[in-house]
Amino acid sequence: MSRGGGGRGLTVRVRGARRKDPSSVRWLSRQLNDPYVRKAQAAGYRSRAAFKLIELDDRFRLLRKGARVLDLGAAPGGWTQVAVERAGPGVVAVDILPMEPVPGATVLRGDLTDPAVADAAVAALGGKADIVLSDMAPNTTGHAATDHLRIMALAEIAMDVALQVLAPGGAFVCKVFQGGSERDMLAALKQRFASVRHAKPPASRKESAETYVVAQGFR
Ligand code: SAM
């Protein structure tokens, strides 16, 4: 990489960009110029996504001390780190990919489309959850409609898990993509939660269709 000019706030350019695949140049350039990436590195978070949960929690007051938290699609672990910092030990994190341990959390590896994996997560929690978080996302294909359907399929799995494992009064936070099919999910959530809202935290990139559903007051 190289820095264009001197001084602050200037764009970092990717060195050798002409020889690289344009999509990887775009990704690298975005990473190098993203203030949240730098903030995450400085704070010791494994992902810039950590700030999305911090911003959601600052707004909705989700992570009470002592809460039992289930973090679905947790790797590389930024949300898990924030959940342990704010709620304390008692966090169970699950991902299909391997994830480095986080002190204070139980990390399980498994595919959440398999109901046995959700059962194992519930067993590891040792009781009902106060909060279910899902930042699950599939690898994107670049085809918007396909990506939307795939992410919503994961969101519905997360919702099913939340409805099974939440204690009364519990909360559910889930990544969804705007684009139509999230409406059915919202209708289902409204039947079971006192409040259901959409929130796009500032750390979520404006150009991304990603947003979060925050459901509170499980009944
Ligand atoms: N919240 C995380 C953080 O702060 O580091 C980032 C999560 S990342 C955006 C989405 C995760 O969902 C990926 O690690 C991916 O492996 C996981 N995922 C996707 N499909 C899954 C599945 N079927 N079961 C479990 N995890 C899955």
Describe the structure.
- It is a single chain.
- The chain has two domains: 2-33; 46-218, Vaccinia Virus protein VP39 (Rossmann fold), CATH 3.40.50.
- The chain has seven helices and nine strands.
- It has helices at residues 22-32, 35-43, 50-60, 78-87, 115-125, 144-165, 182-192; strands spanning 2-3, 12-13, 69-72, 91-95, 105-109, 129-134, 166-177, 193-199, 210-218.
- Strands 5-4-3-6-7-9-8 form a seven-stranded mixed sheet, with helices on both faces. A two-stranded antiparallel sheet has the order 1-2.
- Helix 3 runs parallel beside helix 4 and helix 6 (144-165) packs parallel to helix 7 (182-192).
- The longest helix has 22 residues, at 144-165.
- The chain starts with a strand and ends with a strand.
- Residues 1-8 have low confidence and may be disordered.
- It binds S-adenosylmethionine.
- The site of S-adenosylmethionine (SAM) has 22 residues, from helix 4.
Summed up, what is this model?
The protein is α/β, with parallel strands linked by helices. It has helices at 22-32, 35-43, 50-60, 78-87, 115-125, 144-165, 182-192, and strands spanning 2-3, 12-13, 69-72, 91-95, 105-109, 129-134, 166-177, 193-199, 210-218. The model is unreliable at 1-8 (pLDDT under 50).
